[in-house]
UniProtKB/TrEMBL annotation:
Origin organism lineage: Bacteria, Bacillati, Actinomycetota, Actinomycetes, Kitasatosporales
Protein name: RNA polymerase sigma-70 factor (ECF subfamily)
Keyword Transcription regulation included in the entry's annotation: yes
Metal-binding is among the record's keywords: no
Organism of origin: Streptomyces iranensis
Family annotation (PANTHER family): ECF RNA POLYMERASE SIGMA FACTOR SIGI-RELATED, SIGMA 19 FACTOR
A GO term, aspect molecular function: sigma factor activity
């Protein structure tokens, strides 16, 4: 039982590492299970530091997964977005948002090499020392330091402008929803940044824009067209946290099909909208009981 207790103490952290490296809920779940199997096979007294050991194991598993995942994503139809993590919402007094799990940032991480992404996540997000990361990616500690530095510079250059104020974010999402549902074009233009970006992931399974939509007028029209595709009689709108920030989940109660919206907000305006409609990316969600 001691090994189970030690593992359970680290489970949440291990899943968090795996999800940020892979961008996939299913892969993170599988990586945690594989890590448990390897941990279970060890003699109880062999590992002096379970936290460090388990982090290294799951990171190696995820690093290996990234290689094959990149090949699949290069063939993907349209923009590839991470599988969303949907929750009921955090405490009302929470005032900052977790940028490291935001869909917009995870999308930026897709542009890094597997080694850069792994080094950045482990060092900058989870404070893993460079020598331990070196064991994961098979490089020297100095090489890993350079990988993390390159990744950090790219993330800083390409990460979206976003607020850390939860209430500001929520107000923008509410205004977007009200304008879309009310067919209020002027209201949409007021809440959308002039250079807003809309990315939609249908994966070839569901109709979606195969290229990012740029600019507030085009995004507003696209959002209104999407809204018109839902039947008001069977449409359910849920306010849920999507990857740690206020977002929206729209479910057709008749077909149990869904759309998940994640937003980036800066200075009260929506700067990025990530829309996941690929049903394969939503299989892990308990849609009827959201």
């Amino acid at each position: 039982m001691a090994e189970l207790t030690a593992f359970e103490e680290q489970r949440d952290r291990l899943w968090a590492v795996a999800y940020r490296i892979t961008g996939s809920v299913a892969d993170a779940d599988d990586a945690v299970q594989e890590t448990w199997l390897r941990w279970q096979a060890l003699p109880a007294d062999e590992v002096a530091d379970p936290r460090a050991y388990l982090t290294t194991v799951i990171s190696r598993i995820c690093y290996d997964l990234l290689g094959s995942a990149r090949v699949r994503r290069e063939r993907y139809v349209g923009p590839w977005l991470p599988e969303p993590v949907v929750a009921a919402g955090g405490p009302e007094d929470r005032v900052t948002l977790d940028e490291s799990v935001g869909l917009a940032l995870l999308t930026v991480l897709e542009r890094l090499t597997p080694a850069e992404r792994t080094a950045f996540i482990l060092h900058d997000v989870f404070s893993v020392p460079f020598p331990e990361i070196a064991e994961v990616v098979g490089r020297s500690p100095e090489s890993v330091r350079q990988l993390a530095s390159r990744a950090r510079k790219r993330v800083r250059a390409e990460a979206p402008r976003r607020s850390v104020d939860r209430e500001e974010h929520r107000r923008a999402v509410d205004a977007f929803l009200q304008a879309v549902m009310g067919g209020d074009m002027d209201g949409l233009l007021e809440i959308l940044d002039p250079e807003v970006v809309w990315r939609s992931d249908g994966g070839g399974k569901v109709a979606a824009a195969r290229l990012p939509v740029l600019g507030n007028e085009k995004v507003a029209r696209f959002a209104q067209r999407l809204a018109r595709g839902f039947d008001p009689a069977t449409m359910l709108v849920h306010h849920r946290d999507v990857n740690g920030a206020p977002g929206l989940v729209i479910v057709d109660s008749a077909s149990v099909q869904a759309v998940v919206f994640a937003f980036s907000v800066h200075q009260g305006l929506i700067t990025e909208i990530d829309v996941i409609v690929n049903p394969d990316k939503l299989r892990h969600l308990d849609l009827p009981n959201l």
